[in-house]
Amino acid sequence: MSKIIPYSTLLRQQQVSFLRHKNREYREREDYLVGLRKLFFQVEGQMRQAELQQLEVFREVAGHFNIDLKLPDLGDRVGLQEMFATNPFLAALREFFAGGLTAEECHEKILALQDESPAP
User: Fold this and answer.
1) Are the C-beta atoms of residues 109 and 101 closer than 8 Å to each other?
2) For residues 87 and 89, what is the distance between their CA atoms, to the nearest angstrom?
3) What's the pLDDT tens digit per position in 99-120?
4) Among 40-49, 76-85, 91-100, which is the least confidently predicted range?
5) Which contacts qualify for 38-42: CB closer than 8 Å, 24 or more apart?
6) Is 55:79 a contact under the CB 8 Å cutoff?
7) pLDDT reading at 71 higher than 70
8) Which residues touch 10 (CB under 8 Å, ≥6 apart)?
9) At a CB cut-off of 8 Å and minimum separation 6, what does 59 contact?
10) Domain spans of the chain?
11) How many whole angstroms separate alpha carbon 34 and alpha carbon 28?
C-alpha cells in the first residue's frame, strides 16, 4: 500500500526547493557582477592612466613654450574641466589636437598668448 505524504511536508519541500533555486540564481548573478566590477576597475584604471598621460602632453607643450600652466589637483575633475574650458592656451591645444588648427595656426595662437602675458 502506498504511503500518503502530508500536504505540509510537500509544501515545505516545495518552499525549500524554491529557496535553493533562488540562491543558485542569486549566486550566479553575484559572481557575474563581481567579474564585471573587477573588469570595470581595470578599465577605469587604464582610462585614468591614459588621462594622466594626456595631461602630461599639455604640461610638456606648456613647458616647451614657457607658459605657466598650473593644473588643479588630479582628483579635481570639475577644476580640470573649468580650466580646459577657460584657459586660452589649453583651448588652442585642444583645437589643434582635434584637427581644427594646423601646427602653424596653433603656433601663432601660442605666440599671441605669450605676447599678451606679462614677462617674468
Assistant:
1) yes
2) 6
3) 999 999 999 999 998 887 655 4
4) 76-85
5) none
6) no
7) yes
8) none
9) 69, 71
10) 7-116
11) 10
Contacts of 73 (CB under 8 A, 6+ apart): 79
Q: How high is the pLDDT of residue 1?
A: 59
- List the one residue out of 72, 75, 73 whose CA is nearest residue 83: 72
Whole-prediction pTM: 0.67
Query: Is the model's pLDDT at 34 over the cut of 70?
Result: yes
Residue pair 62/89 in contact (Cβ under 8 Å)? The answer is yes
Q: pLDDT category, 90, cuts 50, 70, 90?
A: very high
Alpha-carbon distance of 112 to 88, in angstroms, equals: 10
CA distance readout (Å), 105 to 27, 47, 93, 96, 99 = 59, 30, 10, 8, 11
For residue 87, the tally of other CB atoms under 10 A from its CB is 19
Q: What is the pLDDT of residue 87?
A: 94
Of residues 65, 58, 71, 70, the one with CA closest to residue 114: 65
**Are the beta carbons of 89 and 69 closer than 8 angstroms?**
yes
